[in-house]
Design brief:
By secondary structure, this protein is an alpha+beta fold. The protein has one domain: Sandwich (Jelly Rolls). The protein is built from three helices and eight strands. A five-stranded antiparallel sheet has the order 1-2-8-3-6, covered by helices on one side. A three-stranded antiparallel sheet has the order 5-4-7, with no helix packed on it. It is globular, with a radius of gyration of 15 Å. The model has no long low-confidence stretch (mean pLDDT about 80).
């Protein structure tokens, strides 16, 4: 899905291995493939009309959209009132951008005092999860949320 958009951005900016490069680009609006948001919204509407479920038992749908040697790019569509499990990413970093809606995130740094830090991210905002952090994400009850996640392999 939208491979041409990713190919263009990846080649233009020379991204192959670095989440730091991606973080810079995610903060720029050029790395927001809005046509994907439209496609996913249409798919959700279609399935609702058919009374079929777009989401898994955790109330999100994860779609691999691009991959390099060191990184994987996923669109994640979150159901209304979704709540992920508390998790890390196998001691690797994860970067995400909110493309549509708003997410709440609780982070726990296991190398520090296990303090819980809570943040809310709106459309176009970016968050980075470090290798020593766990997080849990949730959505509100008013609309679906779409995020773009980039994981280190």
């Amino acid at each position: 899905m939208n491979i041409k958009i990713f190919d263009k951005i990846i080649k233009q900016y020379g991204i192959r291995n670095s989440l730091n490069d991606c973080k810079y680009l995610l903060k720029k609006s050029i790395f927001s493939p809005y046509e994907c948001v439209s496609i996913i919204n249409k798919r959700i509407s279609y399935l609702e009309e058919k009374e079929e479920n777009f989401f898994n038992e955790q109330h999100y749908n994860k779609i691999l959209c691009y991959e390099t040697d060191k990184l994987k790019f996923f669109y994640i569509t979150w159901d209304i009132n979704a709540l992920s499990k508390l998790h890390n990413h196998n001691n690797k970093k994860c970067l995400y951008k909110v493309l549509k809606g708003q997410v709440n995130e609780s982070k726990i740094n296991i190398e520090k005092t296990f303090e819980i830090v809570k943040n809310t991210y709106n459309e176009q905002e970016v968050s980075l999860l470090n290798e020593n952090e766990y997080h849990q994400m949730s959505t509100l009850d008013d609309d679906y949320v779409i995020t773009l996640h980039i994981y280190e392999k």
